[in-house]
Amino acid sequence: MDLYTAGIQQVVKEAGYATVARELRMDEGRLHKKLDPDGTVPLTLADFIRIAVMMRDPRAVTAILDEMGLVAVPVERPIDDASLCDRIIHQQVAVGNVAQEVQAALADGKVDANEAWAIDRAVDVAIEKLCALRSELKEMAEPKVVKG
């Protein structure tokens, strides 16, 4: 298993091989073989993409994005009745969740790897909410900004 497929392996392991194999309509044993670092059955690009899209877990593609110097931000589809104020509230709640994760992590005086991951995830969610707010504001702008 190389650096690029290690993320997929971790995501599938946490979700459960049986669950992922069922969703992929693949034999669980075959999925194990494809994700085995020393296995002889290759993980195809098509399988990699199917798993990454199905799992919707950024860890599946983080190494690839890092290599390219990119960051992925999920596109939040606007909800018909969601107002700008709702987006602001959602963003503020997300920032509050970051503070809660940090407070919980520091309760014992140290931050372990799982707590750091939880904080990282909470920060990502807060950034996503802020980006969604920014996107909605840009869409509301008159006249529309034209990218050149």
Automatic annotation (TrEMBL):
InterPro entries: Phage_186_CII-like
Domain of life the protein comes from: Bacteria
Pfam families given in the database record: Phage_CP76
UniProt protein name: Phage regulatory CII family protein
Lineage of producing organism: Bacteria, Pseudomonadati, Pseudomonadota, Gammaproteobacteria, Oceanospirillales
